[in-house]
Design goal:
Elements lengths: L4 E7 L3 H12 L6 E7 L6 H11 L3 E5 L8 H10 L5 E6 L3 E3 L3 H12 L7 E3 L4 E4 H7 L8 H11 L3 E3 L6 E3 L4 H22 L5 H7 L7 H18 L9 H15 L3 H7 L11 H6 L7
Parallel strand pairs: 1-2, 1-4, 2-3, 6-8
Antiparallel strand pairs: 4-7, 5-9, 6-7
């Protein structure tokens, strides 16, 4: 049977959680799916884990890339989509999450909405995303950056091609050690701040947002951003600017999100149609809508 769906995963040194995370995905797919893992030059046991998994699960395929310090997560995601064999791609699966058995339900929700629309779109759920592969390549590629997902959402929203789906939680984050959490905090704070400066080289703008009364940033992130700011500002000056649309970045994306998001039932009603909950699993009817509507 031909592969129709490609679950695209990017991995770098996540060997501690990779097997649990991927097993939770592989246990719920069939031969119409492939789980494609692009390893970004890991130096831990990731490749050994992937090799062992590939012997157990024919749906798993992995690609090992040489480490390139200039290739950021956005470009690795591009590689995963270009190498995908399916007509549809489900990008941005994480290697430290356990996924509950609702991937097929999510795909069914997508197809029911797809049949009601006249244009391609990207359905964004909570840790689940899907779009046509050719459509994703057309609206991409992801920019070679971290925070690449938000950047993509902005561009999709500009063309009214982003649909946010509200549903119950379907994943569990695997625990990390304090050292891993600290590394993650340091890295993500730097990457996000640098992306801010690449899109707007006004030095004091990040400080204004940090000092805003309604800022909900963790105090540790505030301190780190203040310490990182001079260095992030200087390095951003020598990197390719990110032409993010200011009108959306400065709040209109949130407005778009609030206007367009909805449950499965609400989204279908906007297209003057009704969801067919009988096509979902019994528990999936609760996760993705009101089970009384079946």
């Amino acid at each position: 049977m031909d592969i129709r769906y490609s679950i695209c995963v990017c991995n770098y040194n996540m060997g501690d959680t990779l097997e649990q995370a991927m097993t939770s995905v592989l246990e719920q797919v069939d031969e119409t799916y492939e789980v494609l893992v692009v390893d970004d030059g890991s130096t831990d046991n990731s490749l050994q884990v992937l090799h062992k998994l590939s012997e157990r699960y024919p749906e798993l395929r992995y690609i090992s890339l040489p480490r390139d310090k200039h290739r950021l997560l956005g470009e690795t995601r591009n590689i995963s989509i270009r190498e995908a064999r399916g007509e549809y791609v489900l990008p941005q699966f994480d290697c430290d999450d356990i996924y509950e058995p609702y991937i097929k339900d999510f795909v069914e929700v997508f197809h029911q909405i797809e049949r009601c629309t006249e244009h391609h779109f990207y359905l964004k759920g909570n840790k689940l995303n899907i779009g046509q592969r050719d459509f994703m390549l057309k609206y991409g590629p992801y920019r070679n950056m971290f925070k690449e997902d938000r950047d993509m959402w902005v561009r999709l929203a500009l063309d009214n091609a982003l649909i946010p789906l509200l549903h119950e939680n379907i994943f569990t984050r695997l625990p990390k050690s304090k050292v891993q959490l600290l590394k993650r905090l340091l890295f993500k704070t730097w990457a996000h701040l640098q992306a801010d400066y690449r899109s707007n080289l006004i030095f004091f703008d990040p400080f204004k947002r940090l000092c805003a009364r309604n800022s909900n940033r963790d105090y540790r992130v505030r301190i780190l951003r203040c310490l990182y700011s001079p260095f992030a500002y200087i390095t951003a000056k020598y990197m390719e600017p990110l032409p993010l649309p200011d009108s959306l970045v400065q709040g209109k994306l949130k407005v778009y999100w609030a206007e367009k998001q909805g449950t499965f039932n609400e989204l279908m009603q906007r297209y003057n149609s009704a969801p067919d909950f009988t096509k979902l699993s019994q528990s999936g009817r609760t996760k993705f809508g009101n089970s009384n509507n079946n």
